[in-house]
Design goal:
- The longest helix has 22 residues, at 55-76.
- The two termini are 21 Å apart.
- Helix content is 20%, strand content 39%.
- Strands 1-2-4-5-6-3 form a 6-stranded antiparallel beta sheet.
- With 143 residues, the protein is an alpha+beta fold.
- It has a single domain, classed as Thiol Ester Dehydrase, Chain A, CATH 3.10.129.
- The chain has helices at residues 3-8, 55-76, and strands at residues 21-26, 29-35, 85-94, 103-114, 117-126, 131-141.
- The model has no long low-confidence stretch (mean pLDDT 92).
């Protein structure tokens, strides 16, 4: 499955899509990027005058790339139907902030995938390769 095919299957509208591009994907992991739009609504009131990306948005970005895109890839291999894959839990630690306009790279490595459940170790890096956040994330097939 190509990157564009994965992106076309994402269940998000433009204002809540946090994936620009899938750089690589195979059955063991996925890597993708996203640049935070300085005009995004959540920046208006999150530290006015010094817009910082909310941690929940960073987690959502990690989940969209590291679990949902990856889950779509893994499930598409098994079924012709368009799979729906949802984020279920995370245990993430943060190390750096992300400002409006910054580009991040998300790298996810599969811990296990069985019975429609996916668990991954996910990292987010900035353009200088510095670690922003990392942790364990889980998702599952939505039937």
């Amino acid at each position: 499955m190509t990157s564009q095919e994965i992106l076309s299957k994402l269940p998000y509208g433009p204002s809540f899509l946090f994936v620009d591009e899938i750089l690589s994907v195979d059955d063991n992991g996925i890597e993708g990027v996203y640049t935070y739009n300085p005009e995004a609504e959540f920046y208006r009131d999150h530290f006015p005058g010094n817009p910082i990306t909310p941690g929940v948005i960073l987690i959502e970005t990690m989940a969209q790339i590291g679990l949902v895109c990856f889950g779509i890839h893994l499930m598409q291999e098994k079924s012709a139907a368009v799979p729906k894959f949802g984020f279920t839990s995370s245990n993430v630690e943060f190390y750096k902030i992300v400002l409006a306009g910054q580009k991040v790279r998300v790298i996810s490595k599969k811990s296990y995938f069985r019975l429609g459940k996916l668990k991954c170790m996910v990292e987010m890096l900035n353009e200088n390769e510095a670690l922003i956040a990392k942790g364990e994330m889980s998702g599952m097939l939505i039937k």
